[in-house]
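Exercise 3.2. Students should predict the tertiary structure of the chain below and write it as structure tokens, then compare their answer with the key that follows.

Predict this chain's 3D structure.
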Amino acid sequence: MSKNSLSHDIRLIREKKDATGGDILFLISCGQKIEDHEKEKYKKTLVIHASDLPNGKGWNPHIWQILEGKTAITVSLLEAADKIDSGDIWSKVHCSIPKNALWDEINSTIFEAELLLMDFAVDNFYSLTPQPQSELSSDNVYYRLRGPEDSKLDPKKSIAEQFDLMRVCDPERFPAFFFMHGCKYKLTLEKI
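Answer key:
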């Protein structure tokens, strides 16, 4: 972002009511539906989504993929469309996620890919021809939105069996937890 801030007016907003218009609106971890009249304030509205679209549409895709055992995540840059995660693809970046990476390291890796894709969009805004997504896919996975209950551990299972779940849990927002002896316990995982 700092690379482009010298030649572009860049604003970071957290609420759609603050989106006043411009060339590109990037939607990153956006939980609000952006209506057509809001998108019309921009030349392009682009979404960054952490899956190899058209596979892995929906919510929290990189978390679900890590829980599936994947060690590589593709992050896609696509045009916003009425049907969620179905717009034309601008570019993709592949990320390696080591088996020992914790939630903050995973997020940092995904964020670096997002920055690369935003730079790509700015640099290629006028010259790129986006590619439509193939509707024919052998893996039409749609991920549901994760909630606090998805961070629940089973005290009868081993650490090894639940390590991927423990390492993707944000210790502040969605901490790993378990119940034992009538109490609920929070588990925080840190490297030492």
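Discussion points: The CA atoms of residues 50 and 61 lie 6 Å apart. The first helix runs from residue 2 to 5.
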